[in-house]
Amino acid sequence: MKRFLYIAIAAVLFTSCDQKPSLQKYFVENTENKDFIALDLTPKMLNIKEDKLTVSQKEALASFQKINILGFKVNDKNKAEFQTEKEKVTAILKDKKYQQLMKFGSGKGGAQISFVGEDEHIEEFVIFGNKEENGFAVVRVIGKDMNPTYIMEMMSVLQKADVNMEQLKPLQDLLK
Length: 176
What we know:
Blueprint: H1 2-16, H2 23-30, E1 36-41, H3 55-63, E2 64-73, H4 79-93, E3 99-106, E4 109-118, E5 121-131, E6 135-146, H5 148-159, H6 169-175
Antiparallel strand pairs: 1-2, 2-6, 3-4, 4-5, 5-6
Helix pairs in contact: 3-5
Protein name: DUF4252 domain-containing protein
InterPro entries: DUF4252
């Protein structure tokens, strides 16, 4: 009887594990890859003086939990890998759980903003930008009960941030 119970529990665990690719899995798989740059930002790291924020900026900041950034810097040796990795991210973002807000760009680069959740209860914003000569970056803004206006508010809040630029040096190197 115990053996049957163990087999049943194992079967439930293995069948309930989602085998589909996800951005979270993609981030974890590539954090240690030498071609990628990974950064995590929390609200504390932004050093924002909340007394200088508007009410809507405070609401946006309160809904925000963290930002995960994963960048791929292209060079002469990894151009084929760049295309492969860019296609992987594009395929993940085609999953129906990622709802596209906007997309823009040209043949050699572009960006898109997507979200996960419902219109007024968004769990995650995803910003994916790429440029053939630089590489690409995927930014996950993770929060609770965010809404589409919060992404613009967060942009204005980030302009008021007093971030230690040494923490962002890997990202600056990617953008050069």
